[in-house]
Design a protein that fits this description.
Blueprint: H1 5-10, H2 14-26, H3 28-40, H4 42-46, H5 49-53, E1 61-62, H6 77-94, H7 103-124, H8 133-138, H9 149-159, H10 171-174, H11 177-199, H12 204-226, E2 233-238, H13 243-255, E3 268-274, H14 276-283, E4 291-295, E5 306-310, E6 322-326, H15 329-341, E7 346-350, E8 356-357, E9 362-363, H16 370-374, H17 382-387, E10 395-404, E11 410-416, E12 428-432, H18 433-439, E13 440-446, H19 452-456, E14 463-465
Helix pairs in contact: 7-11, 7-12, 11-12
């Protein structure tokens, strides 16, 4: 069978292929670039030492954080970044050297809540065809890991928080793929059953009763994979405020000829049988409801200074869908600088894959010169990157520092990641200000650091978006 003339016009021209190859081999730079990229990989071959040297790892404003955390092989970055912002506040309020919340605790309840919300969304769309766009969105990864700050806040409001030693990691929280694969399969099975029964005439009340029975199976699967979460726990930490006193006491004992004691005499903070909600309210000096999600999405279809809500994005069904306030870059960045300058870290979301050196710890276009490596410019701006799905937010981290130049303007940012100490510089990254402008799409800001005009937007009616309309994506 011969191809039609039209199909021939669509094919790659073999004569042009030959010309492409001749042109490629005639340029020495192409041969050098190919040797480097084939041997070391694109990112290593594109690494530029001059760009890296222009981003020193010192910052005029820097926050003292706890030990680097590690989300392992899971999509819990949004949880880790959220908990890292809260643990900073807890550590400094209670004078602790280090602290880590249990990420697995919220991971358990997030799986439960996402499962419940998925089944509720199925009940709300019983008459939608399974191939409709809205049902396809609902059915895409019903209980997958990813999320936003507001999902975290909704979980904390309902379930509180616990220290890591009260509910440690499990094999399935550190590597969640298999657990979530089979949980999602079971949820879709439940969805098919609910829809089939509806088509056969079962009432909505009977379907809701059946949904409650389905959730019993979900609980069993979560408890088997992660272990049951604690209803109460005991809490013990030692403060660092007695370090100097202990040292002075040791010196006095030594002068007096007394044997040195190895006993830890630091002041203890201790609780017996405290609930997770009580722990959050007593020990975390921050109300998660006092933080607002700001976006910088410079698309004509998403005007600035508007409040947006994305349908079908809730994890806790009764808490409602995710909301964002879209502001210009100058407002966005000023809020970030003001909050860090006041001594508070910032949850943020970005496309972490763009111009990123994971092992070296850089987010910077001048440090990852793929344009030079490939001999072509990459010209999409922020709006085009979001509109065409090239650079949506995919990862959440924590800003813990910023360097201000002689004019008080930021030129680089300190980033705390959740990929362990073996990535970046002991777990930390440095991001250029130009990279921040281009690839950071969300920041979480306390209301007190919002300007009056932005704060007033919180009282406006949100513009509702469908889940496929470009604005922001869940971080993983």
């Amino acid at each position: 069978m011969t191809e039609s003339k039209g199909n021939n016009e669509k094919a790659i021209d073999r004569r042009l292929l030959k010309q492409y190859a001749e042109d490629f081999n005639a340029d020495r730079a192409n041969l050098v670039a190919a040797n480097a990229a084939v041997s070391a990989g694109v990112l290593e071959a594109a690494a530029d030492y001059r760009g890296q040297r222009s981003l020193p790892r010192d910052f005029s404003i820097e926050l003292k954080q706890g030990s680097i955390t590690n989300q392992r092989r899971s999509g819990r970055c949004w949880m880790f970044a959220s908990l890292n912002t809260l643990r900073y506040e807890l550590m400094h309020a209670w004078n602790l050297d280090d602290f880590e919340f249990s990420e697995t605790y919220l991971f358990f309840w997030d799986a439960m809540e996402k499962s419940n919300t998925y089944l509720e969304n199925v009940l709300a769309t019983l008459d939608e065809p399974t191939d409709s766009r809205i049902f396809q969105e609902i059915n895409d990864g019903p209980a997958d890991d990813g999320g936003w700050w507001q999902m975290f806040a909704d979980l904390v409001n309902k379930y509180g928080l616990v220290p890591k030693n009260a509910y440690p990691e499990s094999a399935n929280s550190k590597d969640s793929d298999a657990f979530k694969q089979y949980l999602n399969s079971k949820l879709r099975e439940f969805a098919a059953d609910l829809r089939d029964r509806h088509a056969a005439g079962t009432s909505i009340d009977e379907l809701r009763t059946l949904k409650d029975e389905d959730m019993s199976t979900v609980y069993r699967m979560c408890a088997i994979a992660l272990g049951e979460p604690p209803e109460t726990f005991d809490f013990l930490v030692r403060t660092s405020d007695d370090d100097k006193k202990d040292a002075d006491s040791d010196r006095k004992d030594k002068k007096a000829g007394k044997p040195k004691s190895g006993k830890d005499e630091r002041r203890q903070i201790r609780e017996f049988g405290i609930t997770p909600v009580e722990f959050y309210r007593k020990y975390v000096p921050l109300d998660v409801n006092d933080l607002v999600t700001l976006c910088n999405v410079p698309m004509e279809s998403r005007p600035f200074n508007r409040r947006y809500r994305i349908r079908f994005t809730a994890n806790v069904a009764e808490a409602g869908d995710m909301e964002f306030i879209n502001v210009p870059l100058d407002v966005f960045k000023k809020a970030a600088v003001d909050q860090i300058s006041a001594g508070h870290p910032i949850w943020f979301a970005c496309d972490c894959t763009q111009f990123s050196l994971r092992s070296a710890g850089y987010f910077d276009c001048d440090s990852v010169r793929v344009d030079q490596l490939f001999g072509t410019e990459f010209t999409l701006d922020k709006a085009q990157g979001l509109e065409y799905g090239d650079s949506p937010s995919d990862h959440a981290m924590t800003l813990t520092g910023v360097n201000l130049d002689a004019n008080g303007r930021p030129n680089r940012w300190k980033v705390e990641n959740s990929w362990g100490k073996d990535n970046g510089d002991d777990g930390y990254y440095v991001a250029s200000d130009a990279w921040f402008d281009r690839y950071v799409t969300e920041i979480i800001i306390r209301r007190e650091y919002l300007d009056e005009a932005t704060r007033a937007l919180l009282a406006t009616e949100p513009v509702e978006l469908d889940p496929w309309e470009p604005l922001t994506k869940r971080s993983r």
